[in-house]
Structure to design on (455 residues):
């Protein structure tokens, strides 16, 4: 079956008029969430250093590095705008693909939209189509792509970015198919080893995917061809979904329900600045802290019962030398921060906060264990249970099955507006209100100039 071609044909024909209202609304919420992440990420020194390097390259000043105060060329702009969307790990995500489509698709869409002067309707179409192209291949390989050592945000995100860029540049269905083929050749390796090791290069995966996707579409637009079967492969058995997957991919997920269901509707949002696999434990810890004051000195131990992939991916601890990436992917750190600080935002990712001895002492008391019952519920549910044993023998316990932001317990426009303001620091509140309003009314915009200027 021509999975790649069918996906390309569908993405080429997405129109605002034919999209269900809830899909349009969800796409706008994804863009609003994207803005929140840009603001929050710029609080990190590493992100500011990446932005400073991009600025030093001295590329033509055409496209805005959002929130950074300068312009650069379209590829570098997409790179930094994807990096700022990714860095604090509060980005949107796909439950059934293990990927974060917004950090690749949206920066590519906004950069090209600014380049060509596209309006809000075209951006929404590009984002919806891009999410299909990013999420469906990821779902076809989940969880084996990640278990094989890859991060689908970077790999599959490139397909989504290529489709978004192709749509905004007016490529036809055959050219869009070539953009997908080109993307499969240009996409980043995105090694999971870097994430698991806590190396901060991890934060550029969305930016690299966005930039590579724009390149893939641009090359397709001038006649460069890519394999029209890039996802499934040919008789040579060399398709992307096969060579980057540790088990047989479920290729039918690439086209199943196309047009009847939209993958953007399965996207979750994050209220916390950490890997989604920590969120059940984070929410449980915050709820316990709100119900009863927890004195770290009186805690004997904390046990977090969760599902297997969570223990594998985020069960490790941290120390004073750990990076913010390690902290984002550590249930012990996340639980300790939630109990001590009563929140988990950009402020919990600074080097000073991570190295706090009292916080590290509490994190060292946290143990993570796979619960076989909870493991059987994954990926339908991402359940975690936090149990606190005090030195006097008292116990507190709380389980969360559907962390906040999941489509079953969604973050609505009001919640995401609060997230924008929370992560925005001391930025002008009136401008923030206008940013929020313009995103939520995006389909009425004839161009994005004012919105981009405000961000």
């Amino acid at each position: 079956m021509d999975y790649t071609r069918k996906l390309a044909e569908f993405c080429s024909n997405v129109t605002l008029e034919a999209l269900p209202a809830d899909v349009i609304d969800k796409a706008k919420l994804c863009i609003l969430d994207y803005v929140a992440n840009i603001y929050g990420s710029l609080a990190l020194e590493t992100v500011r250093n990446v932005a400073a390097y991009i600025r030093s390259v001295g590329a033509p000043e055409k496209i805005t590095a959002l929130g950074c105060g300068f312009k650069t060329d379209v590829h570098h702009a997409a790179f930094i705008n994807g990096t700022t969307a990714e860095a604090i790990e509060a980005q949107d995500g796909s439950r059934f693909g293990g990927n974060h489509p917004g950090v690749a698709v949206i920066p590519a869409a906004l950069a090209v939209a600014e380049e060509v002067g596209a309006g809000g309707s075209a951006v929404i179409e590009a984002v919806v189509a891009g999410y299909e192209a990013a999420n469906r291949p990821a779902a076809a390989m989940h969880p084996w792509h990640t278990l094989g050592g890859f991060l689908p945000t970077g790999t599959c995100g490139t397909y989504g970015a290529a489709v978004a860029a192709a749509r905004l540049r007016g490529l036809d269905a055959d050219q869009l198919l070539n953009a997908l083929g080109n993307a499969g050749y240009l996409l980043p390796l995105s090694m999971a080893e870097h994430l698991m090791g806590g190396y901060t290069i991890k934060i550029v995966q969305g930016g690299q995917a966005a930039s590579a996707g724009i390149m893939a579409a641009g090359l397709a637009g001038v006649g460069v061809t890519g394999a029209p079967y890039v996802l499934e492969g040919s008789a040579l058995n060399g398709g992307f979904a096969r060579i980057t997957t540790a088990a047989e991919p479920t290729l039918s997920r690439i086209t199943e329900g196309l047009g009847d269901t939209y993958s953007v509707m399965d996207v979750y949002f994050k209220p916390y600045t950490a890997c989604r696999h920590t969120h059940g434990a984070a929410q449980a810890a915050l709820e316990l802290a709100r119900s009863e004051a927890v004195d770290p000195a009186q805690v004997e131990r904390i046990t977090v019962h969760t599902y297997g992939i969570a223990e594998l991916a985020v069960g490790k601890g941290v120390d004073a030398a750990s990076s913010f990436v390690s902290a984002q992917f550590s249930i012990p750190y996340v639980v300790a921060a939630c109990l001590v600080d009563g929140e988990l935002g950009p402020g919990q990712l600074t080097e000073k906060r991570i190295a706090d001895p009292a916080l590290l002492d509490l994190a060292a008391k946290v143990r993570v264990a796979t619960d076989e019952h909870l493991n059987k519920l994954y990926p339908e549910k991402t359940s975690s249970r936090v149990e606190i044993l005090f030195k006097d023998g008292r116990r507190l316990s709380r389980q969360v099955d559907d962390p906040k932001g999941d489509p079953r317990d969604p973050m609505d426009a009001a919640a995401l507006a609060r997230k924008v303001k929370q992560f925005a620091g001391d930025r002008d509140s009136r401008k923030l209100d206008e940013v929020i309003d313009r995103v939520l009314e995006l389909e009425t915009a004839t161009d994005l100039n004012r919105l981009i200027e405000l961000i």
